[in-house]
Amino acid sequence: MSISEKYNLSPNDIDRIVEMAWEDRTPFEAIEAQFGLKEQEVIELMRSEMKKSSWKHWRKRMNNRKTKHLQKRIEQMGRFRCSRQKAISHNKIT
């Protein structure tokens, strides 16, 4: 069973998860809060949705990136909000 089937994700949900995963300052915890996918499940989804070369590039970028994990962030950094976030429909966080 794929991640999208397990969590009953629509194509729009998958697109949004991929977009959030590519954003440097969106932590995995935000994806989990909105869609229920843990970091490992996001990695599996990205692997299944992307070309192999794109997935390798993404993994290289995300490896040890402090901004992708709330616990590794500097406290003064605060919460990042994308300028387009208000325009996104069905966003459960805003």
Description of the molecule:
By secondary structure, this protein is mostly helical. It has one domain (3-87). Helices cover 49% and strands 0% of the residues. The radius of gyration is 13 Å and the shape is globular. The relative contact order is 0.16. Pfam families: DUF2805.
Task: Name the descriptors.
globular; 94 residues; 5 helices; single chain; mainly alpha
Concise summary:
It contains five helices and no strands.
Structure class: mainly alpha
Specify the helix fraction band. Answer: 40-55%
Number of helical elements: 5
Uncertain stretches? none
Number of strands: 0
Encode the helix/strand succession as letters. HHHHH
- In whole angstroms, the N-to-C terminal distance is 31 Å
**How many discrete structural domains?**
1
| Rounded radius of gyration (Å) | 13 Å
Principal-axes shape call? globular
Share of β-strand residues: under 5%
What's the overall average pLDDT, rounded?
A: 80
Largest sheet: none
Protein name: TIGR03643 family protein
Pfam families: DUF2805
Q: Strands, helices and their partners?
A:
Elements lengths: L2 H4 L4 H12 L5 H8 L3 H11 L2 H11 L32
Protein name: TIGR03643 family protein
Pfam family, one: DUF2805
